[in-house]
Amino acid sequence: MSRILVVEDEQHLAEGLRYNLESEGYEVAVAESGEVALEMLAKEPPAFDIVVLDVMLPGKDGFTVMAEMRRAGQFVPTLMLTARGHADDILRGFDAGADDYLAKPFELKILIARIQGLLRRREWLRSAPPSPPGNNGLKNVYEFAGKRVNFDLLELQSAGQAVPLTLMEANVLRYLIEHEGTPVSRKSMLENVWGLHEDTDTRAIDNFIVRLRKLIEDDPAHPKHLVTVRGVGYKFLSSTAPAG
């Protein structure tokens, strides 16, 4: 039985979610604040298979809780609930490390479908066989400049260390790699990676790229793989040769 942590301060909403999720066969725990949620998640072994995290919380908001989870190495699949479907809020959630989002108000069947999708992904990753060495295709792994990205396991291997990736980090990196050498616009990334079709503050995308550079660049201040294309967006280069 999958265990879900619902982080929601409004009691009637939290209990409603608990009732409906338990009716679907899940085991559910509720945290009324971000601080309580972080304490519950810090216990060993990991007690939850998925987190449903509201953005509007007393004390630490959902964005802060999400970021602290990831910094602490807690990569439990997380679905964020936002009061608005505004693109900047959605991108901010992904930037903090969320795996998916759902804007309030939402239909219960949509929430269930999103949760099931994240749980299926988690179980698939647990049972996925190791990718064969030397496979440089994008179905499983991609190797460049002494680094190895395993898209199945959401993992970056570099300098003998394995660094976990969030689902969105892996999706962004995959999209840029698939268009290697070609400038990719911010609008294209919004539509094809995040699934957003409205104007938004592009600084959210820029901040996301900054974070990815910290993961894959030897010198993030002077990137050689995720290169800025002025007036357009970004392009990926597998070679470490300086961009022209």
Overall pLDDT confidence: 83
- Give the helix tally: 8
Question: Per the principal axes of the C-alpha atoms, what is the gross shape?
Answer: globular
Return the CATH topology of the largest domain: Rossmann fold
Question: Using DSSP, what is the number of strands?
Answer: 12
Architecture blueprint of SSEs:
Layout: E1 3-7, H1 11-23, E2 27-31, H2 34-41, E3 50-54, H3 62-71, E4 78-82, H4 87-96, E5 100-103, H5 108-127, E6 141-144, E7 147-150, E8 155-158, E9 161-164, H6 167-178, E10 184-185, H7 186-194, H8 203-216, E11 226-229, E12 233-236
3D architecture notes:
The chain has eight helices and twelve strands. The chain folds into two domains: 125 residues, Rossmann fold; 96 residues, Arc Repressor Mutant, subunit A. 31% of the residues are buried. Helix 2 packs parallel to helix 3, helix 4 runs parallel beside helix 8 and helix 6 packs across helix 7. With 244 residues, it is of the alpha/beta class. The protein has a five-stranded parallel sheet with strand order 2-1-3-4-5, sandwiched between helices. Strands 6-7-8-9 form a four-stranded antiparallel sheet, with no helix packed on it. The chain has a three-stranded antiparallel sheet with strand order 10-12-11. The chain starts with a strand and ends in an 8-residue tail after the last strand. About 4% of the residues have low confidence. It is 39% helix and 20% strand.
